[in-house]
Amino acid sequence: MSSKRFKKLTEKTKNFNAEPFEKLISELKKNCTTKFDESLDLSFQINNKQKKSEVNIRTVVNLPGGTGKKVKVAVVCEDNKAQEAKDAGADVVGSDEFVEKIKVGELNFEKLICTPGMMVKLSKLGKILGPKGLMPNPKLGSVSDNIKEAVTNAKSGQVEIRNDKDGNIGVSIGKKSFSDDQLMKNFNAILETLEKEKSNNTLKGDLIKNVFATSTMGVSYKVKLGKSI
Q1: DSSP string spanning 54-101?
Q2: Tell me, what's the pLDDT at 1?
Q3: N or C end of the chain: smaller count of CB under 10 Å?
Q4: Residue spans of the chain under pLDDT 70
Q5: In the CATH hierarchy, which fold is given to the domain comprising 18-67+158-222?
Q6: CA atoms of 112 and 76, how far apart (whole Å)
Q7: Which fold has domain 73-156?
Q8: pLDDT tens digit string along 96-138?
């Protein structure tokens, strides 16, 4: 059963045509009628089914406007790098003892970073970290000797872009409280990243078939892209 609040929103938007994201921002914010600071989210449908292969996208993008979320970051590193991790703002830092805690299921963090030297120990914990999406990955910048940069990126607005088996990508680009400029910068950063991913994949036709934007408790709008990607 839809709530009265939601029914009012769908009544307002049922005849709404696809518009550029810049024009949709004000409508999305109007639909944030709950008491909390709702997230604004994008949903991409990509052309992942090809004759010879399947397109798989997994990368990260640093959102210039931030995410509005506090991320609890853990670092597994050698003892001589522990202070560097703490100074960078890591919430949990450890070495072999920390690996043992992870092994028994203590996953009190949302992002895990490790140095290349410690990755061999974490690689044995794939069954624990993998299903949670917590396994560090060099391609995503979470396996690095530059602990400061990795932690700073994770804390300041880095999000992962990854399609599921049906070719869908969901990503949050900020909060209702964000300025329109912040949201546009984040939107453009994601499009630029997807454009790079298209060039990295052998793809016939457009990568993106459809884009939709919504708020946490709002209705969905179709986004009109300025150019094909």
Answers
A1: B---EEEEE-TT--S----EEEE--GGGHHHHHHHT-SEEESHHHHHH
A2: 46
A3: N
A4: 1-16, 50-53
A5: Ribulose 1,5 Bisphosphate Carboxylase/Oxygenase (3.30.190)
A6: 8
A7: Rossmann fold (3.40.50)
A8: 999 999 999 999 999 999 999 999 999 999 999 999 999 999 9
